[in-house]
Amino acid sequence: MRRTPSIAVVTTLALLALGACATPTMRAPEAGAPAPTPGLDWFDHRDGGDLSLAYGRETSDDLRLRLDCRAGSGTLMLTAPAHGAEPFIHLESGGDTERFTAKVEPSGLGDGDLVIASDVSQRQPVFQRFRSLGWIAAWHGETREVYAPQPGSAVAVSRFMDACEAG
Prior knowledge:
Layout: H1 7-21, E1 41-47, E2 50-56, E3 63-70, E4 75-81, E5 88-93, E6 96-101, E7 103-106, E8 113-121, H2 125-133, E9 136-140, E10 143-147, H3 154-164
Antiparallel strand pairs: 1-2, 2-3, 3-4, 4-8, 5-6, 5-9, 7-8, 9-10
Helix pairs in contact: 2-3
């Protein structure tokens, strides 16, 4: 005796088949990619040949990390809030990590100091990973702070890195 599948079973199988054929509207995050922090994002700016890429809150003094370069130079200047008396900026992206010697200067934007690392090669592995992944993290002692782009804004990272690259 042969059994006929119920309408519910046939409908479920049809919906599953259609779902498998559907084209996703958003690219799925890369495995292990950190989630973006609400209200924070990457913002790039160009003034002639001077370029900057900053992570923080738009139109505020809330800056987490800023990268500056002269177009085509391949050299970056890194600026971040000082955490204690650490005279360096410790960055990581996708497993590559690097500490950059920095000088500590008064912020000028309020309380606290900034650490600034100059003449940093864009060819460092941590920046190559940042370019391909779109996120980077800063280490402050044992604390890791991830700077991941909001959906659609990773293009700011690649646009900045492409423009800074030495020809």
